[in-house]
Each structure stands twice: as C-alpha cells, then as structure tokens.
Amino acid sequence: MKGILICILAMLVFSLTGCAELKELRVETSEQKALIDRLHEDNQACKDSLEAT
Prior knowledge:
Elements: H1 2-52
C-alpha cells in the first residue's frame, strides 16, 4: 500500500514538473517568435532602404 502511494505521488510530481516545463517552453517560444518578427521587419526595412538608393 505504501509503495502504491509513493508511486502515485511520484507520478503527480513528475506530471506537475512536466506541465511547468511546457509552460516555460511556450513562453520562450513566444519570445523567440516576437524576436523573429521584429528581425524580419528590420530586414525588410533595410532591403527597402537599399532598393530606394
């Protein structure tokens, strides 16, 4: 009985740790997407500037 409770507790901790890790990855992904979008806009502005000259 004690072993089953330890197993259930371990699964719960493992599950919560996995959820926290996924949330952190989502935050990093959204930050990286924002950076990519900003760099794309900067790149396009540079290309437009070069074409104008």
